[in-house]
Amino acid sequence: MEAGAGEEGKGAWADVRSDQTFRIPLIDFSKYRYAASLSEKRKTADEIVSGFKEVGFIYLEGHGIPSSTVDNVFKKSAEFFHLPSSVKDKLAWEDPRSNRGYVKIGRERVTQSTDVAEIARLRNKAPDTKESMEIGRDWDETWKNRWPLESDAPGFKQTMLSFFKTCHELHTIVMRSIAVGLDLDEMYFEDKINEQYHNLRLLSYPSIKTSFLQKEGQARAGAHSDYGTLTLLFQDGVGGLEVENPHTRHFQPAKPMPGTIVVNAGDLLARWSNDVLRSTLHRVVAPRRENSNTEGMTPARQSIAFFCNPNGGANISCLPNCHWPGNEAKYAPVTTEEYIVGRLSATYN
Length: 349
Prior knowledge:
Belongs to the iron/ascorbate-dependent oxidoreductase family. By secondary structure, the protein is an alpha+beta fold.
């Protein structure tokens, strides 16, 4: 998969539209971060917005987060998931309004369905084979993070709090680039995303029989879109993430690329932009391998997802230049909290 640097217009993106030539663009974000002028920023901003228009996903390199920082977060995450169930279960996720705490294997079933009974049926038939730890802003007066004791997980809390701040800062800069690419003022989103109403999700996928993952409806994480503005996804080297080609509806691998972050647009950014920017379906399955042995084992996998959201009370209504005669606003206004809590309420048992 290669970059679409400097390419403009629909013709430049025609090759992403077949499964044989599908690609997620690789974008060097340092060109935006260190640009000396708005016109220089515009070049990278156009690449980012074009990627979200056509694919909904990009790879970001030159993002400014050191590999040593990411490696340490993976290390502390692995240490947490290796704790006994008796320790982790005391931190169990309890409330969609909070969206904090430990989620054991089988509790979540991500899907595009919003029907509670249908989600329950899917969960019983084919639950997601993963466990996670959900972390929000730590200073929230209403909802508190559920931290393990320092003696159980040394350095875990401080590592995650620092990483939360780092990811928020990157989210802010990427949203500035999206504003520029949409012909808005660069700071348009600034006061709509500054409350850090985000979710840091640590994910652990246990080793599992490949044949189990290949059963109908079964996956490490079912096909879904994300809820917020952007997701910053940090992958290990195992793979298994697949992205739906929006033009063919077939899933294609999003292979790990060292040093990059996979960034995708979420539902609220799609609603904000009147679907000018795509919130693309994706899933986690057994990685595709040549001559794979279906009776073999799919190795354990780790990933770290930072779900970026607008402020909880932000009014998500069509951006001023994303509707015009013949392309009217598709969605009724909704607040971030209303939308995300609604989706989470249906996802968990």
